[in-house]
Design brief:
The protein is α+β, with helices and mostly antiparallel strands and about 375 residues long. It has helices at about 5-10, 20-30, 40-55, 60-70, 90-105, 110, 135-140, 285-290, 350-360, 370-380, and strands at about 130-135, 145-155, 165-170, 180-185, 190-195, 205-210, 220-230, 240, 255-265, 270, 275-285, 290-295, 300-305, 315-320, 335-340. It is elongated, with a radius of gyration of 32 Å. About 25% of the residues are buried. Its main location: cytoplasm. Belongs to the DnaJ family.
């Protein structure tokens, strides 16, 4: 089913300003929020749809892409999000996180949802975590599965994440999960809203704390996690692993683990998108007369490269399809920059031939006024 136009979803004109977009989303989100419509699949759908539209239209770069390309402008590759708007994995948890990020501190938020609780307790999501994953070009070319060790907060096995026995409303925040501090200044009254330090934002405390987790409902664990990396990823792409970040306090849902891709430098090849660049040393006679040389390939082996007669040192020749795969299935090219190979030592026979070449070329000026031997010397000095 085709997606609706984002402006239509929020009910705003295309020239709407940031404040108008925010007000429109806030109204729809408050009306269709799952806490106000338990078990209502249509309301949940409207909430997710409005949040998706809001996430794109609130960001100037993504909004410009959408205005130009529509939904087709979505970045479908790994790492879409900061540069594109691929919402293929966008779920209710993501939508709720966006809503809480921008509107949890609004005046009347707690009263609107009856304290912001489900079952009498506010749900606080755990933090997202980020790890860096260095990869070689060979691993990027084929795709790879890597195992990484992550230290994160997981639900306490002793209390099942509850934090202890006998829940009670937090006395400090009265179950709201937030505390407000009013400050007076010469400019007027300022209200500072922050997470309640007593209950950690949950709105509830326990009468008898768990001895294992101290009432937090979670403990620190180091875990080995397998990460499947598709072929063709690039430096700066990221892979989100849902629910593998820190667990939320007292049974709250876990955040995500963000795996950030880093490319290791390669001794032979340099990457340019899906293309690879390499320098290939070629004997001078082959450059002059033409011939075939072997070009090393990423991952091992070599491919034949035809060098046309009269090729100058520094010329770039293309081997199609010998680069890296892209995330969309195509392959880049290998660009071989041929340079003259200058031997550090020559045999007596080679020296005699070079001396003969010098004698033959002396006095034979070219159109540019340079002798053939001078041109050889310039090529060798490249």
């Amino acid at each position: 089913m085709a997606k609706r136009d984002y402006y239509e979803v929020l009910g705003v004109p295309r020239g709407a300003g940031e404040d108008e977009i925010k007000r429109a989303y806030r109204k729809i989100a408050f009306e269709s929020h799952p806490d106000r419509n338990p078990g209502n699949a249509e309301a949940e759908k409207r909430f997710k749809e409005a949040t998706e539209a809001y996430e794109v239209l609130r960001d100037p770069e993504q909004r410009a892409r959408y205005d130009r390309f529509g939904h087709a402008g979505a970045g479908a590759g790994a790492g879409a999000g900061p540069q594109g708007f691929d919402f293929s994995g966008f779920d209710l948890a993501d939508a709720l996180r966006t809503f809480m990020r921008d509107f949890a501190g609004d005046q009347g938020f707690e009263e609107f949802f009856g304290g912001g609780a489900r079952g009498g307790r506010r749900v606080v999501q755990g933090s997202d975590l980020q790890v860096r994953l260095p990869l070689t070009l060979e691993e990027i070319a084929t795709g790879v599965e890597k195992k990484i060790r992550v230290k994160h907060q997981r639900a306490c096995g002793t209390c099942g994440g509850r934090g202890g026995e006998g829940e009670a409303t937090c006395a400090q925040c009265q179950g709201r999960g937030q505390v407000r501090r009013v400050q007076q200044s010469i400019f007027g009254q300022f209200v500072n809203v922050s997470t309640c330090p007593q209950c950690g934002g949950g709105g509830r405390t326990v009468r008898e704390r768990c001895r294992t987790c101290g009432g937090e409902g979670r403990v620190s664990e180091t875990e080995t996690i397998a990460v499947k990396v598709p072929a063709g990823v690039a430096n700066g792409n990221f892979i989100p692993l849902r629910g593998l970040g820190d667990a939320g306090p007292r049974g709250g849902p876990a955040g995500d683990l963000i795996v950030l891709i880093e490319e290791k430098p390669h001794p032979v090849f340099q990457r340019d998108g899906d293309d690879l660049h390499a320098e290939v040393r070629v004997p001078y006679p082959v450059l002059v007369l033409g011939g075939r040389v072997e070009v090393p390939l990423l991952g091992g082996g070599a491919a034949p490269l035809d060098v046309p007669a009269g090729t100058e040192s520094g010329t770039v020749l293309r081997l199609r399809g010998r680069g890296l795969p892209s995330l969309r299935g195509a392959h880049g090219d290998l660009l071989a920059r041929v340079v003259v190979a200058v031997p550090s030592k020559v045999s007596p026979a080679e020296r005699r031939l070079l001396e003969e070449l010098r004698k033959l070329s002396e006095g034979r000026a070219t159109r540019s006024g340079r002798s053939a031997f001078q041109r050889v010397k310039e090529a060798f000095a490249f």
